[in-house]
Structures are given as C-alpha cells and as structure tokens.
Amino acid sequence: MADPPGGLDTTTTHQHETFAEGLVLDCGTVLRPLDVAYRTYGRLNDVRSNAILLCHALTGDQYAAETHPVTGKPGWWDTLVGPGKPIDTDRFFVICANVLGGCMGSTGPRSEMTDAEGHPQGRPWGTLFPAVTIRDMVRAQAMLVERLGITKLFAVIGGSMGGMQVLAWAALYPERVFSAIPIATAAWHSAQNIAFNEIGRQAINADPEFHGGEYWRHGTIPARGLAVARMTAHITYLSEEALTRKFGRRLRTGPMLTFDNDLFEVESYLQHQGSTFVQRFDANSYLTITRAMDFFDIAAEHEGALGAAFRASPVRFCVISFTSDWLFPTAMSRELVRALNAAAANVSFVEITSDKGHDAFLLDEPVLFRTVSGFLKGAAERWR
C-alpha cells in the first residue's frame, strides 16, 4: 500500500526492524506485524555492554544526533550526543527508536492497517489505530534492543515524554537497565498538562481538513489545526523569562499596529513553529501520542503507591529538573525522588538553575552536560 497523500514526506526510507509476531498492547489489540524504526551512533563493543538507549519526546524521533532527513536540521540532541560529548559515541553505542504510534517509520496511524493475524486491510490505520501507552512504547523498544543482541542496557536516558519512557523502562525491566536518567519529567501527567494536550487535539479535530481523521482519503492534512496544536504546546515548553528575552513586545514591522500586517515577533515565531511542524508530523500520530502521555501514571499502575514500582530496584537513577520548567516542575521530580528513596533505590537528584523553561533539556545547558557526563562516568566505574 502506498503512503497516504498529504504534506508529509513519503519518500524517505527509515532504518527499521520488523517483528512478525507483533505486540499485544495494553488495550488488548494485537499489532502484527510491528515495525520499529531506529538509528544508532557509535559502536557496540565485543561484550555488548556499552549500549545507551535514548527516548525521544512528543515531537521528536529517532534522528537524535545527525542531520534530519526530512527537515535538514541538526538532530534534537546533537549538543549532547556525539564524539567527545557528554553521551560520548567514542565510548557508547547509542540507540534511538521512533516511538510506537509515531510517523517516522515505526508502526503508527500512517501504517497500513492489519487484522489480529497480520493480514493487510488496504488502508492506513488513521483514527482506528488502537490506543497505545508509554508501556507499549517501551515494550516495542525492548523488542528492538533484544533483536540487536543486547541483554542489558548501560543506560536509558530521555527528557519530557522520553523521561516517562525511562521511568517505564526502570519499572518494567529493572534487570535490563543498569542506570537511568529521567530529565524534566514526572511519574504521571498532571491535569494541567492533560488540559493543554486537549486544546491541541480539539484544534486538530476542528480543522475542516481533518475529515474525521480520514484526511488521507481526501489528499489533505489538517494543517491549521495541527499548527495550532504545535503552537499551544510550544508555549508550554518555554518560560516567561525566555519569551521576554527572545521577543519582548517587539513588532516585526515597526511601531504601527494594523492588525492585518504587523506581527509581534513572538507571534511570527509561533507561526513558524506551527507551519514547519505540519511538514514532518502526522496529525493522527499527534492525537495518539498525546493520549499516551495523558494516560501515563506509574503510581496508578501500582495501586497508588509510586514507590512500589521501584522497590529494591537495582537501577541507578539520576533525576534532573529545571527551575523554570512549569510544564514538569521540580516539585514533580522531588516527589519521584522521595518515592525512589522510600523504595531504597540508588538515586541522585539535580535541580538546574535555568530560565529556558522545559525546553532547557534540548538546549545548550552546560550544567546539564556536566551532570549527564559525570553521572555516566560514575556509573561506568560500577558497571560490570
């Protein structure tokens, strides 16, 4: 089946592994076959002990440390991953997989729909794609890691939704993870975060080009709705200080306000973020992945006891937060750290002073770089 029409790139072939046996999701649906798209950096050593898994955030993908094949931009963690960098690819074999439900090669709403036996149905999944959870995403990653011949990861690292995956890895597969670095994240999605996600989903659904999620039948994409969703989310990634520093109240075209032609610089910035996003992301994937984030709640999975998920865990944790992050504030990281301490887990915690907001984990933050580098060096001294 050809890729559905629309504004997304359909020509790039993504490196992937196919699992004919498929995956049984938390909702009970069987996805068969299952594709997991991924990229690797560095070299796996002879004893297969130097593997690090990176987990990407909501709008990220597997292209963490290289030029993106669709946008032509640097990888989303190019500042942190590479030769001589904190996640040093001269020492480590780094893996990054596109999440289940994504739109960069892993099985998701753009993939061809199949029945429980894996028979193709001749159409994309679209909005019929089953509900997935963060745990489902991690199980798919675990299948990839096993396929690559790795029995235990040296570290799992990620920020935001990637941090949720890190915590799920530690809870589901503690015997397969030596160390974990969850950054700018939490053990559950807050009501405020769910509310922001719902605004984005409603914007997509309200776009007349959405066509009930079957925009692929019409050769369109809900570009306006998806752009508004991206703009709304992007505001939550920044802090007031960062917005003021970058844009203030400056107008692009001078002091006269005409409403038709003059834009505040911050408006132009958000519109650019929205317009570029629709060229690389699928609207149905956005709906799927934001719902997975909303349902994430490790405590609820253990009858309300967060510490029970990590009781006597052998995993070494380094929890990192940022002072200006109001999407995943430090208080949520502290709650996680308290639960880890109560569970007798090995945990360190660093709150980094930054005015860059939630996005600080993706930006040039020297303290973050030193923290990640130092923790990995210390963990390596105790590894095997």
Describe the protein's architecture and organization:
The chain is an alpha/beta fold. The strands form four sheets. It has an eight-stranded mixed beta sheet, with helices on both faces. The chain has a two-stranded antiparallel ribbon with strand order 2-3. It has a two-stranded parallel ribbon with strand order 6-7. It has ten helices and 14 strands.
Largest sheet: 8 strands, mixed
Overall pLDDT confidence: 93
Strand order of the largest sheet: 1-4-8-5-11-12-13-14
**Alpha carbon gap, first and last residue:** 47 Å
Radius of gyration: 21 Å
- Can you count the helices? 10
Order of helices and strands: EEEEEEEEEEHEHEHHHHHHEHEH
Uncertain runs: 1-6
Tell me the β content: 15-25%
Report the principal-axis shape: globular
Q: In total, how many beta strands?
A: 14
- Specify the structural class: alpha/beta
Q: How much helix, percentage-wise, in residues?
A: 25-40%
